[in-house]
Give the backbone structure.
Amino acid sequence: MPPGSALPPQKELSAAYGVTLVTLRQALRQLEADGLLSQQPGRGTFVASPKATYRLDSLRGLAEDLRAQGHPVSTEIHGQGLHRPPAWVAAQLGPGRILRLERLRLLAGRPAVHQLSWVRPPVGALLRTADLSDTSLYAAIAEHGVVVHRASEVLRPEVLTAPVAELLRRPEGTPVFVSDRITYGLDNQPVVVDRATILGSVMEVRTERAATGLSVQWTSSS
């Protein structure tokens, strides 16, 4: 059944599969938890649209991650030039004019992620006129001799505010994930500071843990 299709009423499903309503509802809840169904009170049960995964255990560009999962990704450039950074960026990259790159990521033509990236000089200045609409920022940086080595990232829930809400075509107050990432070069100096605003209705956050793998720390936001 294609995404958005309505399932038959629960009584019809229980009769078709020869199970009780209690068993059927347990199965529907599990399928909803797996992201396959969406139960909407008063309306019924529907096949859910597949969500892209924002992975926390890889050091690749966002578009690279999504394409590797088979999602059609396109990028709109909404700003690319040298600007004085806000204080939270200057604390990492220093003051002065720095490359500010504003991008909108679309999945299958639908806005999904607003991404604001600041790139340290001198490599940032070299990318001021580069075509980054279909090129990984990490790859473009590497072409100028800067190799990314590691990154630190903080992910938190927020709500949309203007003007990002308008770009993502969602009303202000819509719940979103906000990712702040600092990417470091081989010299352990910050190279890129990113802030990505991610629509939770389009993407889910996923990670895999192992004894020697990803380290996850939980902190209070209060």
Observations:
- The chain is about 25% helix and 35% strand.
- The helical segments are 10-17, 21-33, 62-68, 87-93, 123-126, 137-142, 164-168.
- The first helix runs from residue 10 to 17.
- The beta strands are 37-40, 44-47, 52-55, 73-83, 98-107, 110-119, 148-159, 175-185, 190-199, 203-206.
